[in-house]
């Protein structure tokens, strides 16, 4: 239609100019050819199109014929087609996801068209800067993941399944809490701001920006509370049903993300949901039943054996036996073994962890054609946590619709609503400290009952916690073509998310006073983008695209809480009768109302799709930038050379495609809030002077006039290659990413008046290499189909600038001593620890200070008193760095890096007829973990009269008697333990290698033959079984090297990762 | 046909131009970026009205009053002169050790004292962070006012607020120089640099320069009586500059002549160009003078029981110490005869002696009271009156002093006249003695007398080096101790935190 119009238009133009007689002749020739074709014999072709890898029919597949190709039909819902074409004409089946399949028209048998999935990455359509492009002309680094790869495992948060699938995207599913998100890092560190201490030290999350069907969604919420998340804490990504996802595209370098300007610095992930594409409506149902399996619980010494060991410890390590006996006699749970209260062997962990049986259901109804199509998705997801009293449920309903009354006007709209219900138990979602505390109790204590000794146990089981997160997201996208090639478009979207938490703590576990807490928050995102774009081809080889757009963005957030203490009774939960003195409430910190205005222009040119030049520029103004720096620039440039189009190579049989890319660009993401830039003003609590009101600035944070958004500048070199008809394809990227102006809170000296300032002076550089290789191991003629793919990323960070021109700086961990070093020229996050080289075998092995004649002493501070305790056999050998025979804070060394250098994944797909097997895994290497959990386990022996669980340590090589060559120091010497602190967590003894290889998923599936299902009206049916997260290979001595914080600290209070076994069914009508 | 297409093309072009125009206008909505936080006020939304500026400025004085009236700055300046002693009654009943520490310059012990510091908070004087908070606020005010729309504040008001901010900032520096000697100095708004201490002579020179630049931004007086003396006037600027010059004259020997000339010039200007804004009150108006807000006041901290504005114990000069509580036989302190006889030589007439003292003035350790501020005793212990920082008489005496110090006694005649202005007002015997040292001493004792209890005494001793001489104080500091900084206060240890360039006063370490 369009082509036709164009020809007429050209014709008129040329007539008018009377210059192009040749073209006139050409046109006439074309028309004659069409005329000739029309006179040929027509044949009718019938058949069904299948997807080769899954053997399922493909609905809505475009069928083309003619020269140039014109669409003539599309396959029906069951993949069938019936077309009438001239005999011998070439009929082409094609769509974005499949390699084109062509066949000569011939009357006869029913055709079975086997469509192979698009292997040549070159033909993929990707979205760059809001524009759809063929990958062939894309200069930036981007990876496209099909939604199909994200099925078969029911997970709340689809990013879990992205782990190990995109080189350079480091996803760590480090919490098993249902509905919560792990950490996502694009191309190394994007923030090195830390808060908190010890195991709870918290690295500010920098998740990429998500654009869901054109609507920006920022999952970095609530981080201001660190691990103490307020409210339900669900990740917005958990509210999207994975079944509804058509594809996920990851934009990695600055050129690809440049047009997302003010928020693209951490990378951009585009999520596209399914669309209707079949004239006949399709109904697709997917259901999963899955069992969540808790991790292997650690063995515990129980009952009589525990008591015996504790008493024994006193007998051996107390100065006199009488004293030992006295201590034991004074400790009822050791001595009073006949008392039924103390005569137990309780399996505490078993009380909290259990198998959970869950299900999910999802139904998609879709249909329509190019002019009008629609989709509706209804999903239900239910996951009970492997910890008691936790769980997540999701109800989702989303629809989208495209309406295209003419070729010129296209209207696309989406409405998506979801409701997430979750229970956090007594913890805050990420942390389950009550469970950790209770689970680590002595087995001698009685199991929880109303009168039991363990409040935290009952808290974990009886707290009544209910959370609700409701999300509505709508968007409207209008595109109008003014002239051929000139588009005016406007995209407006609005998202509203509100979350509530209700928590009730019964009186019995809260010092006899019941208490209730309620939380409410509301978050809105408004975004409008108006754009104008023009596309023009000159002489068939010069292709130009020019676009400008303006974007307005407004984000608001406010949270309120009420905490009613001492409510009347467990049955009457307020609001009356509570104790106003203890009750609290009000607006939570962290409310914001942020605005961004962005203006952008982009220019792309390619010469015959061989040489590509991309230029773009975006200017952003943000309400949170400092007074002096309201604007930020985001320029980018990209070059690409498709060398396979060289004349010399264009006929080669081995080279399918090959390209070299180079890009440079800058991206910013706003940081801090309006108060960091402008300060907080108060009325000084109503104080007056001279009988007049006063108001002044808060002296806590010095307003930073120069507050700038964090800036990422990336230089990227890429190389793409496909060999032997894309049997082997590879993408390689090398990049240098500079992160500048990163926010870091520095404490100011008192003479600056203000206590702190958010400084912009932190900068570092990430240098990395990424590769992604896919190999189809068998020829396409084989009955077997086997695809292996491997990807990986190496990224190293290096600090380049610190505030005030410092060369080095510490993040002081005030309570746990696990300090972090920032030093220019070194990796960003270095643990600073005592260097443990072993354990003194005997007293004689301890070096003696030649001046005093006394052995090395260790400094300790107990109740503000400083002690120097001489070391003995069985104590750790700490390196005395400064040689003063005193082990103190000056002896710490710069130890390991908590950030992984290498990560990636691998997958294998095997298919034979209707059977297929899909295995994929992820790995991480060169990473140090601080095993705080094991330190705690050993440390539990330092207080035999305390009621911490006795965990068997027989599997560890620890010091027992003089002469032992041990790895771990003597855990039993309880008397000296507070002074020597042999199991202090700030030592290299507990710094372990955190490398692992994990098999995320093994799925075995079977496709029913169409013939068998047809009589039930089913066009395709597929059953599958999946084991998820089941196998992990690692040298790490703790339970799970992935289940650690972003700073690599293993936390006993964290929510363990679950494993699952799924049986699923997918049916299409 | 062709024509028709062209017309429709035209329409499309117009439409496209319209769209482009629309696109172009969207970003111009600067207002879109002005946001307000839902729960707190930010600087982006604060500076919108004249009231905002006024409230912020008013707060500067409130904060200074909070600091200086709470940490007993004025009290310390009196007691450190050493002319006061604890009465027997007080020692046996209360043991107010702080007198003794201040008299003997034992500030280390004073810092460690806990009980009395919970009332008088001398141990907060070294906490200089508070002064810098005010200094930062001044920078913020200047920065904000400069950028305000003319619609909110006209040029005169803008200048006045900026002038006020400059006064407050430099006043704070002056106070700090008196307390600590060298101080870190900056004037940039939102200053976040890390700096050490600058030589205080240089600091004061910078201050003088800035105050001189801004002095005309302030009016000579205000029409609103509530603002008189409470908000700085041009006169306050002059007084501040004169004080700073005189301070430097004491420490910058090479240039002292210049400082004296400057002080003399400024004094003259103050007297001759103030358009009748200031005058010396008469003896009968003394009560009004110390109540505050009089025509003699140049800068004062306001306090008013009726407004409910009373601050710590340091607020009340030393009424608490020098007045006898009705139920007690004596006040807590008495003064040494040796010095009070120099203030008020026996036999010489002086109304101040009659009005400010009772008949036991020369009777050590008796029931004597110092009544200068008695008229301002409110209900209970609340002091109901302004705390006077600078006043006209103070400036006149400084001018006199500077003139007397000028090389070759060139200003001695004027100095005598000025001195006699003050004596005349107090209805005291006029000075008609010699020039030179006699005149200088007479002016010194006149300052002691006139400003007794107003927080200048110790600093006059220091800047004139009379602190080294037992003729003028009971516990003189030795020359070497003086050079090592015995006249300063210790600086809080927290100054070292996060600041590698910081050094504390070695004398007190």
What does this structure look like?
The complex is a heterodimer of chains A (1069) and B (509). Chain A contains 14 helices and 58 strands. Chain A has 1069 residues and is mainly β. In chain A, the strands form 13 sheets. Chain A has a 22-stranded antiparallel beta barrel. A five-stranded mixed beta sheet of chain A has the order 11-18-19-16-17. In chain A, strands 1, 2, 5 and 8 form a four-stranded mixed beta sheet that branches. In chain A, a hairpin with a 2-residue loop joins β9 (125-128) and β10 (131-134). The relative contact order of chain A is 0.11. With 509 residues, chain B is mainly alpha-helical. Chain B has helices at 2-25, 43-46, 50-68, 73-79, 88-93, 97-103, 107-112, 117-120, 129-146, 155-180, 200-214, 234-251, 256-273, 286-291, 319-322, 337-343, 351-356, 392-405, 412-425, 436-450, 457-463, 479-483, and strands at 41-42, 84-86, 297-301, 333-335, 387-391. Chain B has a two-stranded antiparallel sheet with strand order 2-4. In chain B, strands 3-5 form a two-stranded antiparallel sheet. Chain B starts with a helix and ends in a 26-residue tail after the last helix. Mean pLDDT of chain B is 86; it is low at 1-5 and 24-28. At the A-B interface, α1, β27, β28, β30 and α11 of A face α1, β1, α2, α3 and α9 of B.
Sheet having the most strands of chain A: 22 strands, antiparallel, barrel
How big is the Rg of chain B? Answer: 27 Å
Helical percentage of chain B = 40-55%
Helices of chain B, by number, come to: 22
Main sheet characteristics of chain B = 2 strands, antiparallel
Shape of chain B: globular
Can you tell me the residue ranges of chain A where pLDDT is under 50 for at least 5 consecutive residues? 1-38
Strand content of chain A: over 45%
Which pair of protein chains has the largest interface, and what are the residue counts?
Answer: A-B, 68 and 73 residues
Give the averaged pLDDT of chain A, no decimals. Answer: 81
> Helix- and strand-based class of chain A?
mainly beta
Low-confidence blocks of residues of chain B: 1-5, 24-28
Oligomer: heterodimer
Q: What global shape of chain A is seen?
A: globular
- Summarize the helix and strand pattern of chain B as letters: HEHHHEHHHHHHHHHHEHEHHEHHHHH
Mean of pLDDT of chain B: 86
CA(first)-CA(last) distance of chain A: 33 Å
